[in-house]
Amino acid sequence: MYIKDLSKYEGQEVTLRGWASNRRSSKGLEFVILRDGTGFCQCIVDANQVSPAVFEKAGKLKLESSFSLKGKVVKDERQIGGYEVHVSELEIYQIAEEYPIAKKEHGVDFLTDNRHLWLRSSRQWAIMKIRNRIIYSIHQFFQENEFVEMDAPIFTGNACEGTTNLFETNYFDETAYLSQSGQLYGEAMAMAMGRIYTFGPTFRAEKSKTRRHLTEFWMIEPEMAFFDIFDNMDLIEQFLRRVVSDVLRDCKNELEIIGRDTSVLQNITKPFPRLTYDEAVRIIKGEQDVNGKNSIKELETELASVLASIDEHKKEIAEREEKIKTPGMKKGEIGFNQSKIDKLKQELADLEEQARNIPQWLNSARNFTYGNDLGGSDETVITRLFDVPIMVYNWPHAVKAFYLKRDPDDNRFARGVDVLAPEGYGEIVGGGERETNEQMLREKITEHELPMEAFEWYLDLRKYGSVPHAGFGLGLERLVTWICKLPHVRESIPFPRMMGRLLP
Amino acid sequence: MYIKDLSKYEGQEVTLRGWASNRRSSKGLEFVILRDGTGFCQCIVDANQVSPAVFEKAGKLKLESSFSLKGKVVKDERQIGGYEVHVSELEIYQIAEEYPIAKKEHGVDFLTDNRHLWLRSSRQWAIMKIRNRIIYSIHQFFQENEFVEMDAPIFTGNACEGTTNLFETNYFDETAYLSQSGQLYGEAMAMAMGRIYTFGPTFRAEKSKTRRHLTEFWMIEPEMAFFDIFDNMDLIEQFLRRVVSDVLRDCKNELEIIGRDTSVLQNITKPFPRLTYDEAVRIIKGEQDVNGKNSIKELETELASVLASIDEHKKEIAEREEKIKTPGMKKGEIGFNQSKIDKLKQELADLEEQARNIPQWLNSARNFTYGNDLGGSDETVITRLFDVPIMVYNWPHAVKAFYLKRDPDDNRFARGVDVLAPEGYGEIVGGGERETNEQMLREKITEHELPMEAFEWYLDLRKYGSVPHAGFGLGLERLVTWICKLPHVRESIPFPRMMGRLLP
After folding, report:
1. What is the ipTM, given to two decimal places?
2. Which one, out of B76, B105, B122, B464, has a CA that is 20 to 30 A from the CA of B179?
3. Averaged over A454-461, what is the pLDDT?
């Protein structure tokens, strides 16, 4: 019997087991929030309705103590989930020690050090439930479309895009790299099975500590024989639409808990704009408006408004700090003002970060050099102008991986496509059509200074029945981060791994 | 349009694309076996029905050449899949170079060196389709039962069962181990989400080259709050029953291609015998019969029969080798005898391997020391007596991991459970109920000489709302190997990694 099923038992007696995620006492009543992994539920222990022993046990429940209870399910619209339980019996498994994560705000380092406990908070619980729905939706989409799940190896003797940023290990006195993409193996598997997808962890030894990077993250990499770049874009669009729609339908409660405004997600049913690299560059540089917006003007306007808001915040903080010095002010009023000050200071910190970021974005947008890859700032600038994922395709071939097909219509470009999530999130998918010509690949491998002998097996795919094919890679955590609108990718995975972060 | 859908298009004109997996010519006809990843289909090009250009193109198709064709779907019960295509048009993508994997028998090292191509053979294709069905069935089972998929980290600062056999990497000047189990993280996640499962790769630097070991393999590790060992065994049984049933229902064609006798798999609906360690030991040592069989007598009888068969094989080989020396014997007859000889020699090699193995099994069964863990030979001995997976539980605590709960009824035992696949396959699942007492765990960690500080976060789970819980780990490749009855685990994964095997 689980909390998620309470609605089926209205008016009936049920048994629940779990942990106390909160408790407050009030005039012969104990209000305990029980969490059991499937949800959260208010349980009321009334001294007039239970034995003194049960009431006493309820009063002992410290945060995260484990217990079971019996009680009657009562509808109450005000509760999360819509039900509460009026307790008749209660048994304790364990009274917890003093729980380190109290209700007050903690720094993110402290919370990450306690990730094994932080996962129990309602917000992290909701994110993990959404992550789970996304994962299963991905499997459902590909399986229902008869793709074959195939696992690419993690240990590789060859490095897909060079050995920079690769972790390595001693593999019985050989050097093995930890895969940063199953791409090349995906191609071999597509030649055997037609349409495949991989779903596994990938590794990058990124020294940068950004809100977008993990050293260990999960990738989904479909690869399809007889697909060109346009078939590929159609598939990406269907795929993302399906996943986001499943989350919207099945995770309403979780999205509400994390406070996600779902209106942008609802746009997923709209066609995804497809921009060539050339168009994307014009938009970033402010040479072309989009959706009635100009990138440079938007940023300038926003910067002005941020700066004004900073002044207002500083002024109000100063005023309130002055105010609470007033002699004889009541404790309650001081507390009220102090909590306002704390909130204002937190907002101020966010605003000041924006005030630092926006000039950088402006600078990188104004000075973007045609021919370069898009950086994180450029992705932020362009995706803030959209309310739906955009696809940027036909990239200058020099900035993309060696295995992308040269555009037959214009030799300067490669048939790659990046999908950028809106609201400033940036790249979630990278993919493209693959080069089918063995000689072209050999030239590219030489040009990228990669060791030819490690790619001989891959080149075999062009010797024995080369066919047009395409595929893409989706970064799971980046998708979760965008769908949940998280400030940092670290909250999108149960146990994040970043530079300097190996525990718990 | 794919081969798997041909039955829906009987009598109609279709377009197919793929590779030539075989071709033979006969009196104005070309018979080409097309494979497209979804299946195999005979396509007939009749010189009287197509243009000379099309017939000429068909004649050029070397093995694994890529092409598309148009043709009419015609029912033919004799064909795999039940349909063939009468070709009207044919276009070549690429004539393949001389394909290295011909129809003749190759050594397994050669095939593994060419794994990227070997995957195209019908047997490997079928195994991969079954593997895919197993993977999705696992997700379906857990998702339908409302488990939350949660990923344990691959990089860990602490080692679950000691650092022997672990791969390590330089992680920004710290040492990170590659996970050999997500177990401990699974427990933390179950305390947050109730019932979870992980599905990811795990790594063991096993120096042994056995038919059961890979260095990189996929594990599924469910963990359930409020489960004891008996709930756990019930779940394992339901779970394996579901997966095998799905394969039997959905992979008939693939099981037929690999020649799997499915009668043993059908037994999956029977209850799984649950033996204590004590009973298992008596059965292995031949002190207790099971299913009317005695382990020692069975092995002795089999050894005698293998030795007799070896003699017969040797005799027949000698006779035939003598025979083909007969002067004037026709080429056809020599060829016929030579292929018989080749086949007999292959069988002889298998028999000789058995003649080497059985005495070892006998020896290890007869001399098994009560209190030891079961070795590979012991698992082989006991599971050859069953036609359904068996569960062995209540193990001597000293041979099992530190985190297993001590049996409250008998302190000598730990509440672990191993599931052994029948037909000699052995362990596919290991699991058990977890110790809930912090002090007991600290003692065990000390006893196992593990670094206590690396486990402090894990011990937190016993401080903050400790509850009864249990879980298990399933080795995906071992399950695939048993279901497909493969001689070696290496065929159960797209790109196997073993000692000395890092490419392709």
Report:
1. 0.95
2. B464
3. 95
